[in-house]
Amino acid sequence: MSMLTHDFLAAYWSAPIVEANIVVFFNLLGALLLGLLVGYERSYHGRAAGMRTYGLVCLASAALTVIVGYPELWFGGHSQLTSYPDVTRVIQGIVTGIGFLCAGVIIKEGFTISGLTTAASIWTASAIGVLVGIGFYFAAIMLSLMSASVMMWISKLESWLPSRLAIAVVLTFRKGFEPGEEMVSSAMGEHGYRIAAGSLVISTSETGQVWQFAAFALRNDTSYSIPAISRELAKINGVEKFQLSFARN
Asked: Looking at 135, 160, 185, which one is the last position of a domain?
């Protein structure tokens, strides 16, 4: 049959195909709304990946999954498929592709790593889209609510539970001064911090030795916050300047 005949083109608008398109549309609309719901929390906190990113990830995942359920209607019902496509392979491809997107939002600078929560939530958004695509609507809704709840409330739970603050420290000593590890460890210990084993990196510069290390608080106490420790670091013998940041995020 020629592709330019009226019957061939009209097949794309036959009742079964139009009905399938309507079902697919509502699946995509639901996936988009659920993706926007999860992405709102990231957008609210000013993250690079916001509502649009999450909505598109969830939407695309649902689209790629739902079309596998209608192979007999592909190409206006003129598909030459001899067997049904394997939806598990489609899901595997979605997960692999989303992995590259997630890797792009993870940033490592020194001892600080940011973007892990955003990457994990983008991966979750793709799973929500897959659930919508295969028709598990209630599960998709519950996963969306659970994901949003985790990102909104678990951080508050973490701050309430006992924990030890980890910080990244860069100490620049004055030229000619020879610091000792025991001296630095003792000074950090006096302020409630212990140097993490294996984190010490020593380099030299024109101004003197530069020590970089991660340290964790020995107890959960506001007196050992970064502003508090910054006021004490300058008192360490031989320190010319310093830099502080959270060691993990």
From this structure: 160
As given in the structure block, the two tokens for residue 214 are: 């991660």
Contact 11, 98 (CB under 8 A): no
Q: How many CA atoms lie within 13 A of 9 on its CB side?
A: 4
- pLDDT per residue, tens digit, the chain (249 aa), is 556 676 777 777 888 888 989 999 999 999 999 999 988 888 877 777 788 989 999 999 999 999 888 888 887 777 777 677 888 888 999 988 888 888 888 877 666 677 888 888 999 999 999 999 999 999 999 999 999 888 888 877 777 776 667 788 888 888 888 888 887 888 777 777 888 887 888 888 777 888 888 888 777 654 556 677 777 777 777 888 888 877 764
Of 128, 160, 192, which closes a domain?
160
What is the CA 210 to chain-centroid distance, rounded?
32
